[in-house]
Design brief:
about 325 residues, alpha/beta, Rossmann fold, 2 domains, two-stranded parallel sheet, 10 helices, 13 strands
Amino acid sequence: MKRILVCGAGGFIGSHLVRRLKAEGFWVRGVDLKHPEFSASAADEFVVGDLREPGLVHEVVKDIEEVYQLAADMGGAGYIFTGEHDADVMHNSATINLNTLECGRQAGVRKFFYSSSACIYPEYNQRDPKNPRCSEESAYPAAPDSEYGWEKLFSERLYLAYHRNWGVDVRVARFHNIFGPEGTWTGGREKAPAALCRKIAEASDSREVEIWGDGLQTRSFLYIDGCVEAIRRLMASDFTGPVNVGSEEMISINGLARLIMDIAGKNLGIRHIPGPLGVRGRNSDNQLIRERLGWAPDRPLREGLEKTYDWVAAQVAASRAIPVAIAS
């Protein structure tokens, strides 16, 4: 039985990936700073530990054939684009990747998957919200819009350098806004779909939903099941990447809010307020992944949002039902 390590197994994508790998019959070890927040991990073995520590990484890569490296210091726009966390984001994520690759190479790991990000794409190609350019070859000349994007681009090059110099088999995917149930939905690190689902679930019909900026900035969002399928296809292929993993169904943030309101059956206003925004437009270009892996998202945005809204609304309801302790 193939033995697999998932780094970041306590996170949103990592926990869903572990579930898929177990369903396919693999033995899986998960490692993260914490267990999954919303359900028990499906991993055969789960190690709570810090991948910034080389000693821990040396232990968790033992007897492992494949590593899926999804661990990173990250969050939504409210975490990534303020600039307040840049040093931590770069140091923590780069250290994890350096440790994982080198310790894994020494241990004889045969193949690595690395989860990069659409944040590596140049800001200058994403100023027009209606016509962003995010094809894989457009990454250079490099000019990511955040330090998070710069670290992801560095780590892409790190994995590819190990591939060239050490013969390590690697696969690199650039994720575009993955969403779904069991993702972070509150606390400051949540991304736009979960944040808007929460705001709309919490609102009455007489209220407004706050959106950062003018709401005309555009994005595409990929449901978690499609992401996991693309990961598995990439790992089963002979294609190194990097390759986009995302949806081409682009929508403005205002449009996203209105779509979720329609799903929720709520008639709410929108109030635009100052806040961190990122690029004006971003959309996955899926030509390469269609050609090389025969993959495309298998469900529309609305279908994934319906499932996500129901889950977030249930979390909101549960959080309101918890008694609040009052100090005497």
